[in-house]
Amino acid sequence: MKRIALLRTSLLAAMACTLAVAGAAHASPESQAARFADYGTPGVWLTKHEDGTTHEVLADASPDAARRPASSIKPLLALIALETGALAGGDEEVPWDGRAYPNFPHWEQASTLTEAMASSSESYFRTLATRIGRDTLAEWVARVDYGNGMLGAQAENAWHDGVLLITPRQQLAFADRLRRGDLPFAPQHMATVREAMRGGDVDGTAVYGKTGTGLRRGDHAGVGWYVGWTEGGATDAAFVLMVALEDSIDGRDRRVRLAHQLLRDTVQAPTR
């Protein structure tokens, strides 16, 4: 308990110096700082609104620090697969890749895109990456200007091996482009992926997003992502939540709840 209290104090002190806001917010900086402090880990919260204004909460972490994308890359993988024909459509049932996933037995079955996005199925997206192929995937990563634009030797490990890295600001840019349909993919493919990312509502505002979890590996710090956008509120907005993970998983449901709390703070719900 003493360690948690010290961490909370440290995070509050750090955020007092690093909270930056451009445009109107709907909660005080202190209340947003308290949310991160209660969560108990350093992190970053970024939003970009329809009118171009941005909002940042930097909880002892940098928005320009590059980390592995982990499963937050899966919307991009789906877009590339649809565009190249590696995936026939969102309704195609991609078979289980035959690997054992003892902690995630629900991955050991055929899935559609919506199902795989919701469960973050490694089986499904490893299969897509293998179908796409390393060279084609590398071409599209560079074309989209995703992260540092680099790719390792194996397509199916691209989001974990630490060669491809992305910053919170770059994540925000990608989410905003997908929200607006400003990516080099067919409109129908972007619409399919956006719909597969639908993740419920926050006070009547639709939320679309994808989590990503990468445990500490070698020199690469652990990271937890939640990247997406809102629709139907007073202002549509792209958002990025990044939390630093140390030796254990924080639980993506808990991370999504934190993002929803921060969305209530920074994105006004629609007028009823």
From TrEMBL:
Residues 1-27 form the signal peptide. Keywords: Signal. It holds the Pfam family Transpeptidase. It comes from the Bacteria. GO terms for molecular function: penicillin binding. Residues 66-247 form the Penicillin-binding protein transpeptidase domain. This is Class D beta-lactamase. It comes from Alkalisalibacterium limincola.
